[in-house]
Amino acid sequence: MAPKSSPTNILKIIRKHRARSDRSSISRSSVTRVDVLGALEARDDRNGREDEMPVDSQGGTYYPLGMFGTDQTIADRFSPTERIVVYQGDCLELLRHCPDELFKLVVTSPPYNIGKEYEKRLNLDLYLSQQEKIIRECVRILSPHGSICWQVGNYVHKGSIVPLDTVLYPIFSDLGLTMRNRIIWHFEHGLHCTKRFSGRYETISWFTKSDDYTFNLDPVRVPQKYPGKKHFKGPKAGQYSSNPLGKNPGDLWIIPNVKSNHVEKTDHPCQFPVELIERLILALTNEEDWVFDPFLGTATTIIAAILHQRRGAGSEIVPKYVSLSKRRIKDALTGQLRTRPMHRPVYDPIKSGNSLTRPPWKKEADEGIPLFQDTEISGRSTAG
Fold it and tell me: Which end of the chain is more exposed for a tag (fewer CB within 10 A), N or C?
């Protein structure tokens, strides 16, 4: 059974209100004006299916067998007639075979030039020069109605950090792109720093090629904080003021990163969560559009694309990650891939009653167990 806040139940509520007389606090005209019913029906058909997806013991969602067509092939060379392309090699080589203005979305997370196993640490100027060549080609293949989303963190050198989005911005701007949002992706887990505050966010720079770009807000709306709020004055007084579809998610996205306990975790050290890319794909593309990722990693971008009836292509230079990508894509096509659902709230260990949230020193103090014995520490007694 779907939860009370699901699109299915919201749809029933709106239908109930529309059947009432004009005394209803949601007037029939107000519902028609925003076309809520039609939008919800479309969204319910698309997203309501996820409420019925099988869920495993770790909270991962399985997409049903055959939902996307198990006969789809994974091509290793690009052709506009394909649906899935995984190229092993340099992304510039793949880009040379991609036609102009075909792709509706380019989304990626390039190496941060910090010496991970899949990259060679370079002088920052050389790194930016390499990025410029790739970005220039990505702009060439981008549709006039398309978007580029470049997800990056910090470059760190001798304890000093350089926010990569700030030094990459001039490249996109000089190529004629317009920045629409600088999205903050916040997560709770990562390395613990000792000489600065631990980094718990990265950025997604969203650029468009023109002012006539695809942007679908309804599929990515999130629940309202006060869905029962009403207008208190004016001609709409007494009517609900919130959009029943939900609210704009804003530019601060709280989405768990893929660490050891995440249902999508693989051997890759820097893996995209599928739900992060799903939000971008649903908002910035339409079904059957092409999505491109020049730094494919574990194929998260392609997986998010095919799960929502888009076409996906990308390149990866590390052979073991190419094999991993193809395996994950096949699992997605056959309904075996576990992913974290977009609508799932972030895990709250306190609300979940996790015993590890209780400080052991507080528990021991409550039970009368001494925290320290009467010993000499640093020349001073702990007794008395």
Answer: C
CATH architecture of 64-223+238-339: 3-Layer(aba) Sandwich (3.40)
- Whole-number Å distance between alpha carbons of 217 and 250: 11
From CA 310, how far away is CA 293, in angstroms rounded? Answer: 13
* Mean pLDDT across 334-354: 76
Residue 346 DSSP class: P
E strand segments, the chain: 61-62, 84-88, 103-108, 142-152, 154-157, 160-163, 178-186, 201-208, 252-254, 290-293, 311-316, 338-339, 376-377, 380-381
Which sequence spans correspond to the domains of the chain? 1-52, 64-223+238-339
Task: Give me the amino acid identity at 218.
Answer: D
CA distance 282 to 274: 12
Provide the 3-class DSSP secondary structure of residue 326.
helix
Q: Where are the alpha helices (DSSP H) in 35-146?
A: 36-51, 91-96, 124-141
| Between 23 and 365, residue with greater pLDDT | 365
Instruction: Say how far apart CA 91 and CA 318 lie, in whole Å.
Output: 12
Pairing assessment for the beta strands 311-316 and 61-62 based on DSSP bridges: unpaired
pLDDT in tens, 55-73: 554 455 554 444 455 568 9
∠ CA(324), CA(327), CA(296), 5° rounding? 50
The DSSP secondary structure of 195-242, one letter per residue, reads SSPPP-EEEEEEEESSSS-----GGG-B--S-TT-B--SSTTTTSB-S
Take residue 128 and report the two structure tokens written for it: 């930016």
